[in-house]
Amino acid sequence: MTEDDVSDINLKETVEQGKKEAMDLRMEQINKNMAKIKHKIVVISGKGGVGKTTVAVNLAMSLASVGLRVGILDVDITGPNVAKMLGISPELKPRVDPEAKKFYPINGPLNIKVMSMAFLIMGQDDPVIWRGPMKMGAVRQFLGDAEWGDLDYLVCDLPPGTSDETLDILQLIPDENVVVVSTPQEVALMDARKTIKMSQIMQRNVLGIIENMSGFACPHCGKHIDLYPPGGAEKAAKDFNIRLLGKIPFEVEIGIQGDQGLPFIIKYADSKSAKAFKMAVKNIQKILEK
Ligand SMILES: Nc1ncnc2c1ncn2[C@@H]1O[C@H](COP(=O)(O)OP(=O)(O)OP(=O)(O)O)[C@@H](O)[C@H]1O
Ligand SMILES: [Mg+2]
């Protein structure tokens, strides 16, 4: 063994040790931050585009509208939509405290604390092209280095599926509660069932399933139209012994208000979907605040 080899081995060890210490420190920070938050809810689905962000944003707004202290974390690193749906300008940048190595989430409507990758990218059209470990690093920083303070609820909006970010966030916050979103369509439910199973295998508290885009009221005659064959969410709830928290109909205004950054629960409070959504929120609160 040459002198060069020895110094190389020591250097590697030192680097590994440094990495481990940094990791332990970050975990400690995450635990400290999460201990100050009473209820953590993660909104997941199997399939994309079923309404997770819509549910997460409106859930956060509903809780904040009754005076609760709420934060929302956009865990969708490559497709962050939370800021847009809350009507917050992506030009805003989180305030950084370099000495304490902390940053502060953006203050959104109703004082909701918001953190998202959207605040960190330069232009709206710039893609975030990151592989798993980098995305996970960002999630850990959002949880550990952001100053969330004392909160009643932290709502986490996830990307679809059961890979990196979903797995990571479920592992990082053991007392997290899971809300599963699905449309009544068979392909969506097929994937939703996988996320329920994954959460149950990880022994997380699955609060239940929200069926979104659950039928449509004909604008001409008011008759209920099923967009997909009904009954799948009830069956999934029964099969996995979880609650069906609510059924939110498809309403054109929900889509429009999502784009305009005006959550329908506030802007369109008397609609069928807002009423159904409020029931789902009540069901969640009943379970968590009993
Ligand atoms: N009940 C509804 N009625 C009408 N439009 C809806 C409804 N729910 C969601 N939408 C619209 O459907 C689209 C997808 O919703 P959303 O972005 O919330 O889904 P997502 O599951 O978060 O998607 P992704 O997997 O890409 O993160 C959005 O344009 C949203 O405004
Ligand atoms: Mg989304």
Shape-level CATH architecture of the largest domain: 3-Layer(aba) Sandwich
The rough form would be described as: globular
Q: Roughly what fraction of the amino acids lie in strands?
A: 15-25%
**Name of the CATH homologous superfamily of the largest domain:** P-loop containing nucleotide triphosphate hydrolases
- Euclidean distance between termini CA atoms: 66 Å
Helix content class: 40-55%
- Uncertain residue ranges: none
Tell me the series of helices and strands, N- to C-terminal.
HEHEHEEEEHEHEHEEHEHHH
Helices and strands in order, then pairings?
Layout: H1 3-35, E1 37-44, H2 52-65, E2 70-74, H3 82-86, E3 95-97, E4 102-104, E5 106-107, E6 113-115, H4 132-144, E7 151-157, H5 164-172, E8 176-182, H6 186-201, E9 205-217, E10 224-225, H7 232-240, E11 244-250, H8 252-260, H9 264-267, H10 272-288
Parallel strand pairs: 1-7, 1-8, 2-6, 2-7, 8-9, 9-11
Antiparallel strand pairs: 3-4, 5-6, 9-10
The structure holds adenosine-5'-triphosphate and magnesium ion (MG).
What does this 3D model show about the protein?
- This protein has 290 residues and is an alpha/beta fold.
- It has helices at 3-35, 52-65, 82-86, 132-144, 164-172, 186-201, 232-240, 252-260, 264-267, 272-288; strands at 37-44, 70-74, 95-97, 102-104, 106-107, 113-115, 151-157, 176-182, 205-217, 224-225, 244-250.
- The longest helix has 33 residues, at 3-35.
- The chain binds adenosine-5'-triphosphate and magnesium ion.
- Magnesium ion binds next to helix 2.
Quick take:
The protein is of the alpha/beta class and 290 residues long. It has 2 domains: 1-35; 37-288, P-loop containing nucleotide triphosphate hydrolases (Rossmann fold, 3-Layer(aba) Sandwich). The chain has helices at 3-35, 52-65, 82-86, 132-144, 164-172, 186-201, 232-240, 252-260, 264-267, 272-288; strands at residues 37-44, 70-74, 95-97, 102-104, 106-107, 113-115, 151-157, 176-182, 205-217, 224-225, 244-250.
